[in-house]
Amino acid sequence: MGWIALHIGRPVGRALLYPITLYFLLAATAARRGSQRYLGRILNREPRWQDSFRHIHCFAATLLDRIYLLAGQLDRFEIDLHNDQLILDQVASGQGCILLGSHLGSFEALRALGVTRHRLPLRILMNTRHNQGITRFFQTLNPELAQTIIPIGGPETLLQLRENVEQGFLVGLLGDRVAPGEKTVRCQFLGGEAAFPAGPLTLAALACCPVILFFGLYRGGNRYELHFERLADLIVLDRSQRQAQLGDWMQRYADRLAHYARLAPDNWFNFYDYWGEDAT
User: Fold this and answer.
1) Distance (Å, rounded) from C-alpha 167 to C-alpha 122?
2) CA angle 143, 144, 145 (to 5 degrees)
3) If you average pLDDT over every residue of the chain, what do you get?
4) What confidence tens digit (pLDDT) does each residue in 8-34 have?
């Protein structure tokens, strides 16, 4: 698909997404079940197979576009910015921050636009050990963007994050998926209780920096919307109330995630048992 996208073109690549989507709709049983459970909550009705097809196809479309975004071919896309002055003011202040995103839409739209066109001081916390083959492929598309990655998992992760924030970098990470063994907080999300990772806001508290929310919505065709909101100027966690305070902050994040998921229901890409319904 990467070769087709770069050598034959986006129209052919997008045409191939239809049989690919149909294959995964039929063959990926667990992913289809996760999609249907999410869609039932976001649509407030029993989802049809067409709903899951659109959901999986939207995910496939953003993956295809990631090739062009990382290759620096931004002229292919219409990218609308909402409240981007918040980011520009943060950069102008010289103080770094946590840029907290999600698996909603495309984080790559911000990453490519910020680094390639606007030269924003951006770093990304990323688990490079997950899907190593596709990670290496995407990194070869744009070595400059590959250099913005801070690998997650090593003992030096927190140190690197604090150093980058102190140097004025915007450090991006995703806050809606729990890694195995990671500490969690329980939040209300789309009508049910779900586990969210405690790590992102714990890191923000340790780094003593602001937290800005980012949501990159895919609007079909070649259109993307980038939305920015301030979550906190500073997150302070008292030792005696740490878990409760983390829960309050993560609930605010979950509420905003739900808001944007309702704006673009096909954009949320967690295709698994998010609410733990199989376990119960």
Assistant:
1) 11
2) 90
3) 91
4) 999 999 999 999 999 999 999 999 999
Contact 259, 17 (CB under 8 A): no
Yes or no: say if 40 and 187 are a contact pair by the CB < 8 Å rule: no
What is the domain partition of the chain in residue ranges?
78-267
pLDDT at 128: 64
Task: Tell me the pTM.
Answer: 0.92
Residue indicated by tokens 């450090």: 171
Examine the pLDDT at 181 and tell me if it is beyond 90.
no
pLDDT tens string 67-115: 999 888 899 999 999 999 999 999 999 999 999 999 999 988 888 888 7
| 88-92, 120-124, 129-133, 272-276: range with lowest mean pLDDT | 129-133
